[in-house]
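Input:
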Amino acid sequence: MGFAEQVLPVLAPKIRLALDQLRRIVPGKWAKLEEIRLRAEQPLQVEIGQSFLVTGAGELTADPEQALKVGGADLLRTLQLIGGNSLYTLEEELKEGFITLVGGHRVGLAGECLVARGTLLRLKRVTSLNVRIARELKGIGGVLLPFLAQEGRPLRTMIISPPQAGKTTLLRDLIRSFSNGEGLSAPAKVGLVDERGEVAGCYQGVPQLDVGIRTDVLTGCPKREGVFLLLRSMGPQLIATDELGRPGDLDLIEEILNTGVGFITTAHAWDIKDLTRRPSLQHLWVQGLVERVVVLSRRLGPGTLEGVWDGRTHEPLLAQVQRLEVTR
Amino acid sequence: MKMIGALLVMTASTFAGWIYSTLLKKRLTLLNALIQSFQWLETEIGYASTPLVEAFTRISGRTQEDVQLIFSNFVEALQDPAGLTADEAWQHCIKQNQETLPLKAEDWALLFDFGRTLGTTDREHQVTAIRQTLERLQLQTTGATEERKKNERLYRYLGVAGGALVVLIFY
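Output:
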């Protein structure tokens, strides 16, 4: 089942029809679809390398006048379809601001918020909706694996990259490889704390994307609690988490360090230079707490590998810029 | 010949009276089954936060056959590729069954009302809406019970008596 069968049925009929046409007219573009964006009273928009508008007949355009206008009712209907017509089951999601679909695709939400005493209770009216297509590129991290383990032990690794450069896709594949023991001397038991649900794309708790056969997934759990829960309960050899970003997330790395297990995670930074400028990340770099730093960019398109650095010596181990490819 | 005609008239009118009286009973049975089903629904949504399709499928598997019909029609409509909202699907399934099931217009009206917020609000409001519907159903049941007590025999007697009257007049 391709992503079309997973994503199109949850869109309001009018939008579904236009996108289905798009799929027929330009299948090549459709295959590279990254995002579908719906905003109340704004033209229907898709991201395919760049931003395009879509007409009612499914043609790509730059002219907002020609493009299909998304009404508030279309958004509401889409939201209801996403929630299986049972919005009460999405209370947590409406608070977090995203919903995961079958297939691990993520729908981001924005709109009018319901707030009590300064805390966000949930979104009460959704006016923006962003469907991000989850891509599985199995084997894309193959070229990196030799650098990320030593004598069968997974090293403490951090992937840094700007947005949309494929860090989650890479992280997912690396987790899968470690978990299956693919391209490594031995497999590792992996504990994945997927706070935002993006890595494993859990739908009703079951990973929709392949994260390997020895991976225990904790989804929707705050990182800190999640990591320690897994350490206590599942005895992982490698801890994986999605993007670090909240204050305190980075302290977590030091704490994991004390437990002796490997970890792999991602953080947002443009490059090594940028890394050394960010106070919290800089600490990790200067102290050499991370053993490997993998840097991605969009220079040659999403999934461009800028290099792999040794986090302790600060020497590059692989400095050749290349586009990561499926090598399996 | 006259004898046979008279017999036919008597049978027909008695039968009509009997049908009317059973309709009262059927309505009551259906209302009671609806009450039970809505109580189950309250548990499914209020405690387990079960999505509508799952909740209604589960309930229709163990409820009385008329309610089963309404509920399973609703599930079908919800899964329709046209992408109906819960309200639209609910209205659709009510309309589908309105003609054949022994409920009164006011019963249907309260069921229609129930659909308005179905699936669109948070759990708390869903439960409130279900409870309101339950209260209204209970009220209807009380009315239906009284009506049945009062009229069940009446309809039967009327059937027999009406037949007898026609026979007497034309005999």
